[in-house]
Structure formats: structure tokens, C-alpha cells
Amino acid sequence: MNRKLLSKKILAPLIITVFVMVLISTGCGLWPASEDGEIYKETESLMMEEVQAMEMVEEEYAGDEDKAFSEGVQYSDTLNAVDRKVIKTAYLELEVEKGKFEKVLFDITKLAESNGGFISYTQSYSDAEGNLTSGSITIRIPHDQHNPSLDTLKEMGMVKSISVSGQDVTQEYIDLESRLRNLKAQEEILLDLMEQSKDVSDSIEVQVELSYVTEEIEIIKGRMNYLNNMVSFSTIEVYLFEPQSIAIDPGWGFLEALKRGLRGAFSVFNAILVFVIAASPILLFIAVVLIIVWIVIRSRRRSRRQKEKK
């Protein structure tokens, strides 16, 4: 735009100067009257050529400006894509072959360590026979090994469910960087003030403010380190289990019916025995009361009989 305005400012005086020279030369008779029309035509053609040349320069400059703008947009988009910070997490539910739980668990551990990762958490469960048959393991894998590791895990068994998510923390990281720069600038100013302060009270105030700024800087650095760690290493949680054994129906044979009947009878007997033991204090108390009442009634009957004999 500045070059366009400049071209117009140069072109206007040039046209006016040429036109004035033509008028002066015509009026003074420097050229014959018969040549006035030709001179005017030549001057007009010269002016048109100058205008066309300036328009071509302006169009070329405008084209370069648009090209530079488009290239700037593409570069900005590429920069944002490269600097983007995304925390990747995945959950995988895997059914392994019978008796292969411990082997697959070891293979997952080896997968994490061979790719520069590590084990974050693991827990296993055993069946009634004491064999480990199910459990979960959480691994941290470098960011660039996230998808290849998932593909390897899928081949270790039958995938029952899988979920992958990503959390974009780019904006938060940029805000933290901006706050960190501002706090560091405040820290430098406070350090300079502390060196220049001569009064004890002023020095104490500067130290208090400096300690607050330093604490905020450490907090922001800790948060940035945490985000960098979460972005650099993806989290993959795997729950794996062996298929459960199918229970066999015992059937309705005579022996099975007799066994179930005996089990039921023993269950009823045990229930009655538990009730009697639990209620024995109350039953004992009732028995004592009944015995006392029976003794009292018997003694009264004896005394009544003795009175009737007299």
C-alpha cells in the first residue's frame, strides 16, 4: 500500500510538469504550428506509457504482497501443528489364552522397556485354585511409540474393547510460558531494588515480594515439567484376563438328589442348633421361672391338704 501511494505522488507531478512544458513550448513558438498536433500526440502517448508502467509495478507489488501473506499463513499453521502439545491416553481390554496370563503380562512389561518406557502400575488376581488369571497393567510409552505399541498389544490376545483419547494442553502451556517470562522480569527488577535499597524496612518489603515471585516461578516450572512429561510419554492401561471355565451341570440322578436332600437336612439341623444356642440364655431363664412357679404351686397344694385333714 505504501508503494502504491508513492507511485501516485510521483506520477501526478510528472504529468503536470510535462503538460506545462507542452503549453509553454506551444505558446512561445518553439515548434511550428503544424507540429503541435504531433507533439501533443507524442506527449499523450508518453504519459499513457508511464501510467501503464506504474500500474504494472503496482500489480506486481500487490501480487507479491498476497503471496507473502499466503506463505505467512501456511508457515504459521505449520508452526502451530509442530508445537502442539497433546496428552495421549488409551485403555485396552484383552482376553488371552488359557494359562497365558503371566506370559502376556511379562511381554507387555518387555514391550514398555524395549521402547524406552516403564511400568507405572500393575495388579493381578488369582482364581480359586491360586493361579493368576486376570489383572491390569499401566505402561508409559514415548509419544512417538504410542500407535505402534497399541498395534503390538492388539496381537497379544482378543480385543474386547479399546478407547483412545487426547487432551490438548497447548494453550495452557503457552499461558504458563507467558506468566513465567513476566515473573522472571519482576524477579530481576526486585533483585535490582534489593541491591539499591539502603533502608532496612524497604529491604524487608522487597524480600517479601521477591519470595512470593520466586514461589510462583517454581510452581509454574513444576506445572510445565508435568505437562512436558505427560506429553512426552503416553499412558496405556491394559486389562487382561483368561476365559472362565464352563461349569458342568451335575444332572438330576438319584445319588445327586439324595446328596442334595442330606445337605438340606444338615442345613436345617445346623440352623436349629444355632437358634437353640443363641436362645439358650432366654430358655434357661424361662425354665428357672417355670420351676419356681411349679414349686410355689406345689407347696400351696400341700398346705391346703394339711388344713383340710385338720
Structure description:
With 310 residues, the chain is of the alpha+beta class. The chain has 4 domains: 2-82; 86-168, Alpha-Beta Plaits (2-Layer Sandwich), CATH 3.30.70; 170-231; 254-288. Helix content is 69%, strand content 16%. The chain has 7 helices and 5 strands; from the N terminus they run ααβαββαβααβα. The protein has helices spanning 2-28, 36-83, 101-114, 146-154, 170-196, 200-232, 254-309; strands at residues 86-95, 118-126, 132-142, 158-168, 233-241. The protein has a 5-stranded mixed sheet. Helix 1 packs antiparallel against helix 2 (36-83) and helix 5 packs antiparallel against helix 6 (200-232). The longest helix has 56 residues, at 254-309.
Keywords summarizing the entry:
310 residues; disordered N terminus; alpha+beta; Alpha-Beta Plaits; 4 domains; elongated; 5-stranded mixed β-sheet
Mean pLDDT: 76
Task: State which percent range the strand residues make up.
Answer: 15-25%
Question: Which CATH class of the largest domain applies here?
Answer: Alpha Beta
Output the helix-strand order.
Answer: HHEHEEHEHHEH
Percentage of residues assigned to helices: 55-70%
Strand order across the biggest sheet? 2-3-5-1-4
Counting H and I runs of at least 4 residues, what is the number of helices? Answer: 7
Structural class: alpha+beta
Low-confidence stretches: 1-11, 22-43, 60-82
From the spread of the alpha carbons, the general shape counts as: elongated
The figure for the number of domains is 4
* Name given to the CATH homologous superfamily of the largest domain: ACT domain
State Rg: 50 Å
Strand tally: 5
